[in-house]
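hey team, just a heads up i'm posting the complex here instead of the shared drive bc the drive is being weird again. everything in one block, sequence lines first with there labels, then the predicted structure for the whole assembly after. its two chains so it's a bit long, scroll down
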Amino acid sequence: MERRIFLKNTALVSGGIIVSTSLIAQPLSIRKPKKVTILHTNDTHSNIDPFPANHAKYPNRGGVARRFELIQKIRAEEENVVLLDAGDIFQGTPYFNKYGGVLEMKLMTELGYDAATMGNHDFDGGLNGFVAAQKFANFPFLCANYDFKNTEVDGQTQASTILNRGGIKIGIFGVGIELEGLVPDSKFGETRYIDPIDIANQQAINLKEKGCDLIICLSHLGYEYPTAKLSDRVLAKKTKNIHLIIGGHTHTFLDKPTEERNSEGKIVLINQVGFAGLNLGRIDFEIETKAFSKQEVITIL
Amino acid sequence: MFRSLFIFLILGAGLMACSSVSKISIKGESLKVDEQYKTSSRVDSMIQPYRIELQKEMDVKIAFATGDFLVERPCGSLNNWVADALMYYLTKNNQQEAPTFCLFNTGGIRSTINQGDVTVGDIFKVMPFDNLLAWVKMPISSIPLIESHLKATGGEPISGAYLDHGKLIIKGLNSQSTYFWIITSDYLMNGGDKMSFFEQKISSKMTDFLMRDALLSVAKEQSVLVMDTNNRITF
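-- predicted structure starts here --
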């Protein structure tokens, strides 16, 4: 079933002027629908080789060399691909214990990841360990709500990034989970956790003001909890200007993204694809830009 | 003049920046990564040197087992070995002022150790999880809760204490004692595997030691694994 939800454009005040500017500045073809394909993983946990053939639940599943082939296939078919990871890249196989995450970073670079956020297990090698491994990554780690001041990680991560794919601006920021009680103190040192809700709202509005057509939050907060604990579903409800939350931490397998309503009643999608690289998430956005648009229509297919 | 130009520039930047999106259509799915995709030889060749080196390390013999070490309820030889090893590893250089025992969970021991050579890989199979060792300071009043938990589960690995006909006997505990320490994993301390009695804790101290590293260290030190088949749990 196709549903259409009409949403008030928040940039209505200056809408007419904006679009006429873009009409003059850009060729007509820019207004044809543009497609962006978001691919994502979470909680890969150092699973580099596929699961063994005698694995009780997921025999022969996963494997980075196969994930690469799947991604390459999609890249060959689609023009605008973005590849993201929602954290907990480290810990789970002896590859991490032995090599401290270096191989994970090299492989993610080879696969062409555009950005990742830090999960709690990405602190497992200590802050020094993270920095040492991260040197092998050529993609940014997005951490908007960890203050790394006075630590080795200071300046090694950023709050957000903006990608341009065929004329579509994609703004991405990252939020991480409370570390106290989850990660030994010695591993995160003086890292300060800041409540993600205000941060997420600030990041989203900031990216919107910079002209992003799509705003994505990479989150390691967890999909949902039986308690009032902050999760992606709670974050989705309490924020605005975010189109998609790519989550992790709870190893939740979702067949398709969950729809949630944000603080303005607009649709936010949440997705998460289990763990260990068993699955690859794929979300296709088809975006139409129109002159004098006063509404933003979101259709979930 | 300068001032008005400045304002115009800022406004201009703002206008240029805004999105003119009118419609977004979204389709999402989860793709299984399995045999239908071939193994990229380029990526696999990046992994191969690490894989070979790792395999070599996993195959290293660190000890010998004179018999099979089994995970059993209420008590098994591997339950005893794991609990004794963790207890020894943490207390050898760090004695607490109060009685201490080690309590782990049977479900956390993921494999047996078979008679013959014991490799690093065997210990990884026993303890694949990266749980850390922790000290938990518990009040005397928590003892009945621990007793009923052991009864409910049918027995858990224990060292430095035993369950005698349902009664928990902690070595060194006397009538003046008001608290004791339990050595366990961070996972269990935080209520994992229904060990809700840890909610009664007075305080706790995390360590940096992975349980697996403790087992590897003790196995190497023993060289021939110490087999204890005594039943430490009776109801």
